[in-house]
């Protein structure tokens, strides 16, 4: 007998023992088909039985809900941190801000901790600690390590970090600004024309350079051309909600750019032709309809922004064309290798060397926003991976219209890519049901920060324009009208 064949056969018992041990230890996340759901049982009975069969399910859900509630309280927590720091500074007196040599000025420990708890990008990472404690209680520390380091995929958070950094580079941003300036000049180059051009064109770029890159470019340009003019809070929130909704649906012209579409494209065999004919024209119609609806609603204020005086920055010279082409090449390579972290991270390291060699044509690289967004998404996928036990039974029991509405609502409280992924696990989905769940997932992608992966990127860039921070309820209200318009468009003729 071939020695290699003999060796392979001799390892089978050990391999079988390893697999059985993994099953016995209850690997996470638990397979949905491992639950013995009673035939004909109602939704409440199924959920109760699954919670009883594995109490960790309920613990993970409670912790996830606490994390969501925490996101709604971040503004108040940051305000409290500011109050505590002011009191601390008053106690210290004149030495409050006086560093001694290389020693920084004394800070309030309680105030700094509260600032950390008030950072919305840190929320889900903070609650991962509580989740790890719960998993340890029910399964042991080994289950925590196995789940967090072995079963959770961090490809999307890593990709968002890299693509945000590349999209925010000076040559790429300058090129995008010149292209959108040409569109805005058709309307006279006014703030209203810039507002329209960014919100109409930039989201559609998401179908080609991915949604996180489109969000980064759109948010940076909105900050420069619109939010610097100090619009009213009502218009500021309406614009942020509209941006989030438009980006969420703007990536559906293709099958490789929007996270919720990527999750289903291969499983359901959705190609470029299917996406463009089924979702593409509807997405364009929805983006145009929602944007012009808000333009008509806020036309007087948008027109008034043209009279707001602001200091015009000195125009900076454009980077040489070859540098812009090379950096677009780095961005294209990252998008091409989006599912292979070793490749796009390696490419990013080469970019860092290139940026250093062309530093006089670059802006300082600020990695803080991309890293915070990556931390946010990593925490979200850790929590989201343990929520399938209750989401899957809900999706399985809904008809076409209820499924569309249900997916839209569920998306607001869980990343829309997770919703569509769980839909692929439901057997017997018709084409109409597949369309409904994806349409609902992308339509609801602007209602909250956690609804769509690029949203934290937009928040990290534009959050400074909202004083104490973005209020989640006001964001949801700002996104509500565009969500309804987009939802109607996506379901036309389906």
User: What structural category characterises the helix and strand content?
Assistant: mainly alpha
Termini distance? 60 Å
Helical content (DSSP H or I, runs of 4+): over 70%
Count of separate DSSP helical elements:
23
Report the count of strand segments.
Answer: 0
Q: Into how many domains do the coordinates divide? A: 2
- List the secondary-structure elements in sequence, H or E: HHHHHHHHHHHHHHHHHHHHHHH
How would you sum up the global shape?
Answer: globular
Residue fraction in strands: under 5%
Unreliable runs, pLDDT <50, ≥5 residues? Answer: 1-25
Cα radius of gyration in angstroms: 24 Å
Largest sheet: none
Mean pLDDT: 87
Supply database-style keywords:
0% strand, globular, 2 domains, 23 helices, disordered N terminus, mainly alpha
Description:
The chain has helices at residues 3-24, 43-53, 55-92, 109-117, 123-139, 141-151, 155-167, 170-184, 191-209, 211-225, 233-250, 259-265, 272-297, 299-304, 321-336, 341-357, 368-384, 388-396, 400-413, 416-424, 431-443, 455-462, 472-490. It is mostly helical. The protein is globular.
Summarize the structure.
The protein is 71% helix and 0% strand. It is mainly alpha-helical and 494 residues long. The protein folds into two domains: 53-94 and 107-151, no CATH class; 158-306 and 317-490, no CATH class.
């Amino acid at each position: 007998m071939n020695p290699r064949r003999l060796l392979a056969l001799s390892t089978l018992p050990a391999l079988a023992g390893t697999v059985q041990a993994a099953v016995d230890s209850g690997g996470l996340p638990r397979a949905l088909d491992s639950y013995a759901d009673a035939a004909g049982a109602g939704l409440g009975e199924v959920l109760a039985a699954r919670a009883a069969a594995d109490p960790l399910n309920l613990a993970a859900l409670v912790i996830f809900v606490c994390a969501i509630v925490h996101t709604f309280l971040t503004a108040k927590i940051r305000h409290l941190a500011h109050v505590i720091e002011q009191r601390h500074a008053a106690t210290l007196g004149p030495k409050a801000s006086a560093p001694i040599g290389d020693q920084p000025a004394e800070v309030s420990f309680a105030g700094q901790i509260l600032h950390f708890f008030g950072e919305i990008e840190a929320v889900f990472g903070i609650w991962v600690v509580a989740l790890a404690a719960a998993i340890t209680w029910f399964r042991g520390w080994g289950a925590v390590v196995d789940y967090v380091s072995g079963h959770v995929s961090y490809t999307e958070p890593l990709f968002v970090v890299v693509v945000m950094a590349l999209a925010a580079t000076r040559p790429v941003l300058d090129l995008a600004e010149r292209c959108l300036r040409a569109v805005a000049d058709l309307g006279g180059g006014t703030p209203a024309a810039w507002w329209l051009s960014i919100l109409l064109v930039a989201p559609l770029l998401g179908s080609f350079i991915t949604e996180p890159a489109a969000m980064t470019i759109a948010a940076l340009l909105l900050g420069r051309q619109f939010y610097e003019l100090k619009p009213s809070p009502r218009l500021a929130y309406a614009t942020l909600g509209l941006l989030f909704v438009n980006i969420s649906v703007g990536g559906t012209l293709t099958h490789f750019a929007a996270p919720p579409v990527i999750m289903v494209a291969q499983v359901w065999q959705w190609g470029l032709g299917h996406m463009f004919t089924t979702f593409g024209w509807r997405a364009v119609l929805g983006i145009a309809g929602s944007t012009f609806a808000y333009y008509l609603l806020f036309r007087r204020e948008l027109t008034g922004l043209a009279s707001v005086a602001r200091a015009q920055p000195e125009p900076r010279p454009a980077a040489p064309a070859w540098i812009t082409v090379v950096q677009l090449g780095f961005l294209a390579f990252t998008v091409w290798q989006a599912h292979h972290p070793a490749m796009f991270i390696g490419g990013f390291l080469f970019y860092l060397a290139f940026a250093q060699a062309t530093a006089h044509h670059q802006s300082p690289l600020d990695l803080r926003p991309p890293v915070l967004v990556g931390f946010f998404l990593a925490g979200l996928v850790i929590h989201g991976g343990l929520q399938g036990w209750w989401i899957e039974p809900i999706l399985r029991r809904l008809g076409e219209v209820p499924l569309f509405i249900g997916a839209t609502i569920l998306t607001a409280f869980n990343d829309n890519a997770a919703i569509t992924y769980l839909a692929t696990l439901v057997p017997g989905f018709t084409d109409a049901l597949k369309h409904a769940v994806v349409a609902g997932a992308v339509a609801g992608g602007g209602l909250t920060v956690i609804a769509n992966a690029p949203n934290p990127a937009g928040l990290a860039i534009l959050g400074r324009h909202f004083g104490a921070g973005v209020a989640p309820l006001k964001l949801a209200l700002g996104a509500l009208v565009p969500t309804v318009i987009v939802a109607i468009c996506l379901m036309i003729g389906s």
